[in-house]
Amino acid sequence: MLAAARQAALVATVPLPYQPLRQALDKRTNVEARMCFYLSGLFTAAEEIQHHLDAGVPVVVESYFARCLTTHRALGAQLGITLPSWLPTPATYHLVCDDDERQRRLAGRNKPVSRWDSLIETVTERVTDAYASFPMHRVDTTGHSPDEVLRVIMDTETQGAHPHADSEPVGAHAHVLPAVPRHAAGTCRP
After folding, report:
1. Is residue 130 part of a domain?
2. CATH code for the domain in which residue 56 is found
3. Backbone torsions φ then ψ of 57, nearest 5 degrees
4. SS (H, E, C) the chain
5. What is the C-alpha separation between 33 and 109, in angstroms, rounded?
6. Total number of domains constituting the chain
7. Contact by Cβ (8 Å): 115, 26
8. What is the pLDDT of residue 161?
9. Higher confidence at residue 156 or residue 139?
């Protein structure tokens, strides 16, 4: 809906050729291998995203590096990652809702629940805490239809400061996603 409203290209962040491997990998238990797989898909998608942006076409994705990194950190990944400076900086919208509505929505999904889906439900507070290190617009979707949420997103200013965004500088260039926050020892925060 957002891509149509913004007349944007919708880019899959797990590209189609990755899908069969995704299904096989999601049956495995190695969180670092899973994280590397998703990062590979994102870097592949980032090339497509940049191609669209270079052509003047806006882009919408369902998730980007912040989601991959926060999810895998919450699941225990210990890899230290520094994102390259050439990545396009997204205007990120973190859609949230109260827990009762979230559980109702999850129960109504028509998709098989993977081992990873179940695991992430045990660490939701860690995911929320990890998201706090990324600048993003928080949109509460509780009790709102998809059309209402779309209107909120369309009305949100995507340039400059936002009350729910991290106020720290995002990097030397306006088009660069900030490096992943790191401990002094050089490892990602758990």
Report:
1. yes
2. 3.40.50
3. -100, 125
4. CHHHHCCCEECCCCCHHHHHHHHHHCCCCCHHHHHHHHHHHHHHHHHHHHHHHHCCCCEECCCCHHHHHHHHHHCCCCCCCCCCCCCECCCCEEEECCHHHHHHHHHCCCCCCCHHHHHHCCCHHHHHHHHCCCCCEEEECCCCCHHHHHHHHHHCCCCCCCCCCCCCCCCCCCCECCCCCECCCCCECC
5. 26
6. 1
7. yes
8. 37
9. 139
Give the pLDDT of residue 89: 85
pLDDT at 79: 92
Mean local confidence (pLDDT), 32-44 = 95
Identify whether 73 is part of a domain: yes
Flag whether 50 is in a domain: yes
> Is pLDDT at 169 greater than 80 in this prediction?
no
In this prediction the pTM is 0.74
Amino acid at 18: Y
In a domain, 174, yes or no: no
Higher pLDDT, 143 or 178: 143
CB 3 within 8 A of CB 60: yes
